[in-house]
Amino acid sequence: MKATWIGRLAGGITGVIAGGAALGVAELFAAFTGGAQASPVIAVGSAGITLTPEWLKEVAIRHFGTNDKLVLLISLGTAIGVLAVVIGIVARRHLTAGLAGFGALGVLGALAAVTRPAGGWTAVIPSIAGGLAGMVALALLVRAMTRASLAERVEEPQGADRRNLLLIGAGAVVVGGASGLGGNLLLGRKNVDAARKAVQLPGPASRAKAVPAGAQIRVPGMTPFVTPNPDFYRVDTALTLPQVSPHDWMLRIHGMVDHPVELSFDDLLKQPMLERDITLSCVSNQVGGRYAGNARWLGASLPALLRQAGVRSGADQVLSRSTDGFTISTPIETIMDGRDSLLAVGMNGEALPVAHGFPARMIVPGLYGYVSATKWVVDLKVTRFATDKAYWTKRGYSEQAPIKTLSRIDVPRSFARVKAGRVPVAGTAWAQHRGIDVVEVRVDGGPWRRAQLAPVPGTDTWRQWVLEWDATPGSHRLEVRATDGTGAVQPQKRVPVIPNGATGWHSVAVTVT
């Protein structure tokens, strides 16, 4: 029994070493071919995101937030480790089966890479090379282990066989580690942070209105009116951030247009720039959620660019595509109705952060991000909804997705303990492009009381509010609702995120001492 257990342990270690060599070699080859997107782990993970049911994605976002991709990578790495252990144990008795296991993993990675929207035929090379490296390492390790085991059984000197096994194992570890490190270093050279920092943004031809004094409610713990770039929410399907050099970036406007347009990044910066304060929010945002942020954006007028191309009669959507193949569909009527739709290059006074779409992204105020806010955008196809479907609309989300009126209690937090007396209840409400006219708060189902609204520069930003509450000892439930600029009151009934955004009143439970 002990010998069997030791043998399985040795086989498992063999599989892990061979698997490490496979991943390291694959990473090195990825640096010379398809970049990070061709790495087997990233390719399989990205394919997994595409194939994951929408309800499961929502669960992941709800529970892990912006760490959902990290959780996916950790889970994928754990699964690969377990498979490598199993393959090693099997290969100790049936080498052919073990080799087939690594071969199958290589083929799986290759298929995942080549079927990605931005994948070319070279994207298969890292996975194939990694699979072959794993097979070679496994074969050498198993044969060396077998020779050492036979020498032990016939009571022959084992020194040379054990040294050979250790040397092969150490060699596989070195090859895997060095290849992986080298691949990461080479991929790191493709990082565009330096190019981003070198971008000189032009001054705006049309400046944003000044943010009014008092737009920020001065209550401890209150959300900032302007969201700092590092704190701005990020929700997308990119497992690794696309690294797009502004020197290589090109935007194509085509489809149902009179004059197809191609713009380099320098061409885009020569366009008249608009500076605007706009709040973005994600359709994944639950009632009371944090997937909303407000920033000062700088960009070219998207309607002006479309007019340069000449939109033909009958077109009703712009199908935008990011550099990694992700697509978004936006109603042309909404883009062109007079709102400040942008092809943005700047965010809060600096070039767009890579995580938020550098070199350029779309922004259409009043629409959820999944139909308006393409990051790393490289292609605008003027077309029809009946002809082309975007990523999320193929998965059951609505084509039309105006942002719903939402309000949120930011202070006090749910389950907070506060002292009896005057307690400020404060929060944020938004109904982009309609604006917020009224916010009301009630305690324990009592009468609604109007909160004091902070001034805002326009209807495209969120609005802060505050109410002074005479808190009495005990447990209490606070609720909030808002009325938008059209007079429509935020609905009480909670509905899920799918197909076009959540609704419902936000509430918090607090204890007063």
From the N-terminal CA to the C-terminal CA, the straight-line distance is 63 Å
- In N-to-C order, the SSE pattern is HHHHHHHHEEHEEHEEHEEEEEEEEEEEEE
Which outline best applies? globular
Low-pLDDT runs of 5+ residues are: none
Q: What class would the helix/strand composition place it in?
A: alpha+beta
What's the alpha carbon Rg, rounded to whole Å?
28 Å
Q: If you average the pLDDT, what whole number results?
A: 89
Structure summary, number of beta strands: 19
By oligomeric state, this entry counts as single chain
Beta-strand fraction estimate:
15-25%
Outline of this structure?
It contains eleven helices and 19 strands.
Describe the model:
- By secondary structure, the chain is of the alpha+beta class.
- It has 3 domains: 2-188, no CATH class; 198-395, Oxidoreductase, molybdopterin-binding domain (Sulfite Oxidase, Chain A, domain 2, Alpha-Beta Complex); 406-512, Immunoglobulin-like.
- Helix content is 35%, strand content 22%.
- It contains 11 helices and 19 strands.
- A hairpin with a 5-residue loop joins β1 and β2 (261-264).
- α1 packs parallel to α7 (159-188).
- The chain is globular and about 85 Å long.
- The chain starts with a helix and ends with a strand.
